[in-house]
Amino acid sequence: MKKNLLIHHIYLCLELIRKAPFDIREIQTDNGVEFTNLQRKHQGKTMFETILDNLDIKDTRTRIATPRHNGKVERQHRQDSEIFYKHLKMFDLTEGRKQLTKYQLKSNNYIKTCLGFKSPNQVVEQYLFII
Length: 131
Hints:
Radius of gyration: 17 Å
Largest sheet: 2 strands, parallel
Number of helices: 5
Distance between the termini: 41 Å
Number of strands: 2
Oligomer: single chain
Strand content: 5-15%
Structural class: mainly alpha
C-alpha cells in the first residue's frame, strides 16, 4: 500500500511539473515516509527525492511535529473531501477523472483568505504577469 501511495505522489508531482505554466524550482513536503527516509533505518534518498534531484527541484520539508506549517494544505484536503470525494459516484476511472477536472476548475476559482482574498487562478495569473 505504501509503495502505491509513493508512486501516486510521484505521478502527481510529474503531472504538476508537466502542466504548470511556469518552472517549478522548489516544493514543500511534510516528513512522511513517501517523501523521506527520516522515519526509517534505511539511509539514502527515496525515489521521490531522487526524482526531484534529477529534475533540479529543491525539496523543503516542514519542521517535524509542527502541523501548523502544513495547515493550509490539510484544510484544503478536508475541504476537497467534504465537497468532492464524499459525494463522488464513479463507475470507471474515465468518469472519475471528468468529475475531478470539473471540480478542479471550480475549486481553483474559489476566493481564499490565505491567498489575500484571491483565487488560486488569480494568483497564478498575477505571477505569470510579473515574470
